[in-house]
Write the structure tokens for this entry.
Amino acid sequence: MLLLALDTATDGVAVALHDGERVLASLRAGDARHHNEVLVPTVASVLEAAGRERAEVTDVVVGVGPGPFTGLRVGIVTARTLALAWGAAVHGVCSLDALAAEAVADGRAPRGTAFLVATDARRREVHTARYLAADAGLQRLAGPDVGHPGAVERAGVVVVGRGSALYPDALGPATGPSDVDAGYLAAVAADALAGRGGPGLLPVEPLYLRRPDATEPGARKRVTG
């Protein structure tokens, strides 16, 4: 297995290469305004840093959000295009799962306890999901959801992600990680593909939890003289 993972659900782009057991190379670049300009060059840089060729890639994994719709589309379309061009399989992973996996790995979410991931959904809202760091592996218990920080039921659990930094009064003190590390996104996918458990894979479709802002126009009003 040689798995290329990429995520555009948070600020900037995150790209990593994973061989099924470990991360070979990982990189973050750009910001939310330049996803489409920096994503493909970052992919090339990660392959070069790992000393691997694109023809060796067997699987492409993309974070499907939740996140801003434009950013998600850039990542998903790129992942589908690369997989098609390289003859690789393509898979989706919830971007919040990667943040949860990193929180467990670095000890911010102790094993055997439930915790919450909260990220910036903009418009003074947060994307959230609830997890359990179980002995059998990471489990997503609920979500992802979107809502006002003050309406999040946190019940004293640890909250990780950028949401707690933005809304500490509602979500408690800031606890990292803040942005998706594609290495952990790849690890979640590698565990699922190898049958090692975890939150699992998702369809390669954007998790855009809000209704679209644009709506079809209604019937024109009849003009009378």
Q: What stands out?
A: The mean pLDDT is 90. Residues 44 and 67 are 24 Å apart (CA to CA).
